[in-house]
Amino acid sequence: MIKSSNLEIIENASLKNLNTYKLESVAKYLVKVLNIEGLKELLEYIKKENLNYFILGNGSNVILDDYLDGILIKLDGLNNLTIKDNIVTCGAAVKMSTLTCETISKNLTGLEWAINIPGTVGGSIVGNAGAYNSEIFDNLISIKVIDKDCNIKELKKEDIPHAYRHTSLKNKEYIVIEATFKLTKGNKEDSLTLIKDRTKRRKKTQPIDMPSAGSVFRNPQNDHAGRLIEEAGLKGKKIGGAEISPKHANFIVNTGTATSKDIKNLIKLVQEVIKEKYNIDLILEQEIIEWK
Ligand SMILES: Cc1cc2nc3c(=O)[nH]c(=O)nc-3n(C[C@H](O)[C@H](O)[C@H](O)COP(=O)(O)OP(=O)(O)OC[C@H]3O[C@@H](n4cnc5c(N)ncnc54)[C@H](O)[C@@H]3O)c2cc1C
Q1: What is the pLDDT of residue 291?
Q2: Which residue among 31, 93, 186, 201 has its CA within the 20 to 30 Å range from the CA of 134?
Q3: What positions carry a catalytic annotation?
Q4: What's the CATH number of domain 207-289, 3.90.78.10, 3.40.50.1820, 3.90.1150.180, 3.30.70.360?
Q5: 3-class SS at 138?
Q6: Domain boundaries, the chain
Q7: Of 80, 78, 86, 87, which Cα lies nearest the Cα of 56?
Q8: Could you please report the per-residue DSSP string of 179-223?
Q9: What does the pLDDT look like over 114-158, one tens digit per residue?
């Protein structure tokens, strides 16, 4: 395995505290990248050795297999954040909640919707995260990416095909290293009132006290996945330690002993029931990570 002062490497690393489902997953190697030089060194090594790798943000949109025979990369060192007037530039590892708080404190508005999204900026851009009819691409200007050959380039928002909870970046051609947003002048007090109100509403309607990875399925056009699943009588349905949340039917929660297999089987069951009852194909919003 590569050795470098720009990297922190852990062999046979538990990922339990690095995924919001709290699944007991082990990576052959977990590598924390401390700076961009480290990422380049690592990518060169991966290419030379032809290894499996995966970028893990905050693990809040993934279902990790029990054992991942390769390298899980955390971009922890890419956590710079600068605000100049209404232009915000930040590293991919910055948490969405940090970005929201920092911008609100500078009286900038536009990212209030993201306060409760437990993901990183990188992961949120790749999945075009959003809430309350807003999404991360609304305020995005450009991103900096690195490819497998260590070329760094800038992509403007217009150059990145994106749609509801989807972007072309999901094809894994690039790793997002930095993002630039344009916000508008706002008022700190108004923003704080808005996020307090929304946080209260989330607590009431979502099982945020249980390990999950947020919405399981994308909403089908003109409908809600949660409504369909509830109407089909699946709320509270359990397989092993995985349960369709009795609070919100588009959430699967880990009741304590869930494995990735339990969650995948529950997803399959929901998709089959909804197809049979309504002839609708529910599309998975979460990502299954397994290397066979
Ligand atoms: C309680 C709860 C509530 C949630 N509410 C919402 C919500 O309202 N709206 C919403 O959209 N989502 C929501 N989510 C889902 C999740 O938080 C978001 O999808 C978030 O943007 C994922 O970011 P992450 O850093 O955790 O990504 P991860 O889950 O770590 O990764 C997701 C994907 O992005 C890739 N990736 C991560 N970082 C990079 C990078 N730097 N470069 C390239 N690829 C990268 C990964 O390889 C993976 O393919 C919720 C989740 C939870 C647990």
Answers
A1: 85
A2: 93
A3: 165, 215, 285
A4: 3.90.78.10
A5: helix
A6: 7-74, 81-191, 207-289
A7: 78
A8: EEEE-EE--HHHHHHHHHHHHHHHHHHS-TTS---SBSBPPPTTS
A9: 999 999 999 999 999 999 999 999 999 999 999 999 999 999 999
Q: What average pLDDT does the segment 161-184 reach?
A: 96
Taking the centre of ligand 1 as the mean of its atom positions, its distance from the CA of residue 57, in whole angstroms, is 7
In terms of Cα–Cα distance, which of 45, 79, 30 is closest to 148? 45
* Cα 111 to ligand 1 centroid, rounded to whole Å: 16
- Per-residue pLDDT, 235: 97
With vertex at residue 180, the alpha carbon angle to CA 123 and CA 106, rounded to the nearest 5 degrees, is 105
Average pLDDT value for residue range 3-21: 98
Which CATH number among 3.20.20.30, 3.40.1110.10, 3.30.43.10, 3.40.190.10 corresponds to the domain 7-74? 3.30.43.10
Å from CA of 24 to ligand 1 middle? 19
Q: Which atom of ligand 1 is nearest to the CA of 208?
A: 1
Whether pLDDT at 292 is above 80: no
Which of the listed residues 55, 72, 284, 285 should we mutate to test ligand 1's pocket, taking the one with most ligand atoms within 8 A of CB? Answer: 55
CATH of the domain spanning 81-191, picked from 3.40.50.720, 3.30.465.10, 3.30.230.10, 1.20.120.50? 3.30.465.10
pLDDT digits (tens, 9 = 90+) for 266-285: 999 999 999 999 999 999 99
- Ligand 1 residue neighbourhood (C-beta within 6 Å): 20, 54-62, 75, 92, 117-120, 122-124, 126-127, 129-131, 175-176, 208, 212-214, 287
Retrieve residue 127's tokens: 């999945």
